[in-house]
Amino acid sequence: MDVDEFDAAQLGYLWGAAQPTGEVAGWAQLLSRPVGAPAGGASSLLGASCLSAGDCWAVGYQGATANARGQTLIESNAGGAWTAVPSPSPSSASYLDAVACVDAADCWAVGSQGPDPGAETTLFEHYDGSTWSAVPSPGANVSGTSDYLYGVTCTSGSRCWAVGEADTPTGARTLIESYDGSAWTAVPGADPSTYQGLTSVTCPTAADCWAAGSQSGDLGAGPWTTLLEEYTGGPWVAVPSPDPSGASPAFDVLSGVSCSGATACAAVGADRSGTGALQALTLQYQGGGWTAATQPDGARLDAVSCPPGGPCFASGSSGSSLLEGDAASWQAIGTAHSLSGAEWNGLACTGGASCWAVGSQSCADNCQSAALQQVFAPAGVSDPVSLLSPGNGQEALFWRATATQHLAEAGRNLSDGTWSGPLDLTGTLGIPGPGDPASAPTVTLTPGGGQQLVFWQGQNGDLWEAWYTLATGAWQDQDLSGAQHLAGAGGVASSPTVTFTPDGGQQLVFWRGSDGDLWEAWYTVATATWMSADLSTTLLGGRGAGSVASQPTVVLTPGAGQQLAFWKGGNGDVWEAWYTVATSAWQVQDLTAARFAAAAATASEPSVILTPGGGQQLLFWQGASTGDLWEAWFTVATATWNVADLTATHLGGTGSVASMPALTVTPDGGQQLLFWQTTAGHLDEAWYTVATATWQAQDLSATQGLPSGAGLAGAPALIVRGGDQDVLWEGSGSSLWQLAYDGSSWHPYDWSAAG
To answer: 279 and 270 in contact (C-beta within 8 Å)?
Structure first.
């Protein structure tokens, strides 16, 4: 039974079959991004295979009208966008149903060909790294049959399996073909009924495979029941499989099967309820036998993909829900994305929980092939931060997953917008529970962009670091405090702040200690050594009223003649410490008391930035008493500080500030940009234009019509790419929101739902 005999509608389910503990920690949809993949004329994609999120193949057919399967269709997203590539069509009615790749130069696609219904033969096509070509296929070798292939999988370049059915005048047999590295050969399958067919095949290992389909004793009257066959090195054998249908006669059919391991498999399809309504069917295997999982809502499921080490995902006619499950049940996790008239027939997910669903859209007239990228992550987003990584052309996003307290990361390709990951860094690196982040991560690039560095406060109060080396594509991590690099360093009680000396010779890390002191650690590249110091005790004459009550912020003056650190003191004042390289001396002062006598006490850590050229130091903070936005600026030429309540004097009382402001200066130095969370949970922006010496402000939540779910739950993060600006924040329910400015207009995105 061909899987697309049912109408598919949306990507819809997430199943957690392969968690080592048998439980699903909690996953959520991070991104839903539909991408049209038109091939011209009526077309549809039926199957997909991905080596990575940016290296996928999808196969199907294209014809003059809908459902007219005239020619094969193969599309690739290796160049960023989905594009059709040349593929053989040996007959006037050729199509491909499934594809599997061993590596970038070894892929197989299978389907059927034949000018007349009832006289089809199998079709195999192979990709050698440059072109697709048709290869001989034996079919079932039964006179008078029509042979169809619906599924293919490979464990190596010399071991592949393809499955389908061979229709005869008296019934239908399973069709199984094996590839040994040189040729395809038909092998016997188990045929327990008069009519049977296989629609999908998967192999956790070369000697352990499963094929799924359906069987019936009567093609017209039924009943139809599930069919699962297993290969363990000998002949294929049918194994018992559940049939939970409540209808009479029974109707239980399987259209997809996938395994993330030898004892973690899922099979999906459709059955009918006692009322006769079509509904989704889910079976699960954990090493003993196949059992029925709790039935999810939705009409049916078409395909399932279980990347190694992660949960399983499935696509089909699911209404509007995304579900996750443990070993026996499903639960909703978000909202699916549906293009107009969309049908999602095939699905391929990579280990980073990035999935591509393929199918067609706008099928009321002539279908057009379509692709939909879904990215999933450990559920709940807290403290998102982002950085640009020019070395690999990506914007890297890091956050704390609220469901697991793990550190997670995803990368977005800046050229085409596709996502890789997300990666559960905590799980991937095997970071123990004490290393789970207790603070927002701090991220930066080494000078030259060769490494991405992430620092955070661990649950054990230690300073932790993870680093990604672009040249090797590998992550590493360490507990800097526990590894004795920082023996004797004070416990960490804030997000760390990181900067580099201009020559890149040292990494400088500052944090609030659990003792309320200002601490610094520095890594010297030439000697590969870490050192640390309690600045408050050893160099700043004791903390006193200047005890650190916030994350410190740090900048280096041009030429690195000085290191400047600012923080909220225990007395609510803004404090500064500065290190002069020429004298190797630290100094400290209570700026509020000494320079800002009229300023309100600060309720947040101050944000600091230098104007281009370093002529001024700009300091912004949330006022303690009124929630106003305050600014202080130090002019180097006159060695003077000035201070102003911006909300009262320049911004017309715009929304009171409820977070540390995020700020930047445009690349040309013409504007200063600030973003913050208001007490109403709105996103506000203020900008200063240097040429006119004027401030302006707006409530972006109001002007851009952001929904209530986009209300800010914390300080926003900001990244600037030329004339583009991206503002990221945690919304209600630990959702992830982005407001992107493209140089002329703003565009909001809810990454935790359809977008």
So the answer is: yes
